[in-house]
Amino acid sequence: MSLTTADAATPRGGAAGGTAADCATTASPDFGIDLAGGDWRFRTGDDPAWAAADYSDTAWDRWTVPDDWGRSAELSTYDGYAWYRRSFTLPERPDGITDSSVIAALGFIDDADQTFLNGEKIGATGSFPPAFDSTWEVPREYYPPNGLLHWGAVNVLAVRMYDGTGGGGFYKGPIGLYSKAHLRNLSGPRGTAASPRQLAHACSVLERQHRAVAAGDLHRYADTLDRGFFHQGDTAARRVADVRRMMAGTSAVVLHDDQAEVLVDAQGRLVVDTIRSWATTDGTVLSPPQREFLYIDPHRRAELGDHARFFRDSYQSAAMHRRVEFNVYLPPGYTRTTARRFPTVYMLHGYNGSNIEWEARGMDTVMDGLITEKNIAQSVVIFPDGASGWWVDTSAGKYNSMVVKELVPLVDHAYRTIPDRDHRGISGVSMGGQGAFTIGLTHPELFSSIASHMGALNLPPLAGTAEEQAANAPLEPLTLVDSLSVRQLRRHTYYFDGGSSDDFGFGQAALQMGTELTTKGVAYDYQGGPGRHEDAYWVPKLDRSFALHSRQFRAHPVPRPHEPGRPTSAYTWP
């Protein structure tokens, strides 16, 4: 069930305030086939023939998923290809279920995968060598086309995966075939089925958006957005600007909503659970299909936005020659005000990571807890995507320029930050801890507080060619600190930690950093103690690093501006 401008559905007679009521359903049945457990087959290696539905895998090892190669004596040191296969029998097709309304959820896979259902590829995430790209932190959701599933018969799921470093395998669920309703019950907005009138109302808003986009009419599209619209970081003005950018220099643009389901939440808002995509009429994909929850005002034909405070943003990077993503956390006060500005912390991930890994850690919940329970300053937190580039400029990517020359000014323009060094800090984990020191110390005009969790403080940046690594060797944090004067070092405040059993010896590196700063008479906050190179060691110490940033921010108070009058929303948001 879908609606585009090209195939708008016929209005349902008598549906007040709406047209195109056939664009969606009132919700799919709660259907699910859990495929976790011990009925899988597994083997290392790689052969395209293993994707075939009729391939015999009886000689393969029996296997249980989720699994974790890092905890397996056999696989803990293995990096390479492996395949998983699972045969299962579906029941007879339930009423109201089509193949395309079923989502193949494969949880989290370390690092990259291609997935086949009954011999047909249904999705892929990450990429294999020689252009290896780890996406261990990205949840897998794939959408089988109609006609692919064998209802009342045997089906075969085959997953080709590649582990490039550490870990490996299906390390987290859910794993199975589910309807959207089932996935919403696991994690998502809850609600009741929409009435025919509510369904028609929601569909009328979607149809207006589709027709406005196809006609290139930005004014009509803007009219479908509420004055207080805020969705995944977009205000109404920014959303319209994004659509204008998509339309520039292309053929006509088509906005497409697929498998749309409408429910009513506890506050009466209409929630459209849809697979939304943007493309040109000649088939160029502008934004690939992605599951979204659209919130519609039940009384007016307007989209409200989700008012999310933790989401992915993106921009076209000149430094990286491509569109890059970053995640944004907004504190509770951000969406409750329109004029107040907030300090900013840039949080850099470790090796083989990305901006998306913070979603798996639930960093929005972590940050909310630090604010409410530890009196941490309400701050905007930015999570860039540095891949494995060690946060420097090399042939592997200009990650330093991306952060310093692009992200900082972009964030200060797009979000209500306090755009000065006294209200901007930088933190990092492992490779990111090293990056926090190198970026922070070399850009004192931008950052005033620096924090490192189990950081690689005794290593130079290990990205790029041998010549590039040699050129960047002076950026090793211990070397860099040694080269700076006391006056230069005292421009920043510092926090760092490292466990005594750190797998890479970064606990010892933290001790060395403490010795270096002590010798120079520079104050710092240090935390050691037992612990390995893992989340269990550093995540509980976030209160210490954000306390450092908070003290710096509060030492430079900024008057709060008067909040202008604005229409009172009939709804409350998280």
Architecture overview:
- It is built from 14 helices and 27 strands.
- A hairpin with a 4-residue loop joins strand 18 and strand 19 (322-329).
- It has an eight-stranded mixed beta sheet with strand order 18-19-21-20-24-25-26-27, sandwiched between helices. It has a six-stranded antiparallel beta sheet with strand order 4-3-5-10-7-8, with no helix packed on it. Strands 1, 12, 15, 16 and 17 form a five-stranded antiparallel beta sheet that branches.
- Helix 10 (477-483) runs parallel beside helix 12 (506-519).
- 24% of the residues lie in helices and 29% in strands.
- The longest helix has 19 residues, at 196-214.
- The model is unreliable at 1-21 (pLDDT under 50).
- The protein starts with a strand and ends in a 20-residue tail after the last helix.
- The protein is of the alpha+beta class.
Shape: globular
Strand content: 25-35%
Largest beta sheet, briefly?
Answer: 8 strands, mixed
Strand order of the largest sheet: 18-19-21-20-24-25-26-27
The number of helical segments is 14
Which stretches are poorly predicted, pLDDT < 50 over at least 5 residues? 1-21
Which class do the helix and strand fractions yield?
A: alpha+beta
The residue fraction in helices comes out at 10-25%
The chain-level mean pLDDT equals 90
Q: Cα distance, first to last residue?
A: 30 Å
Query: Compute the gyration radius: what is it?
Result: 25 Å
Question: What is the strand tally?
Answer: 27
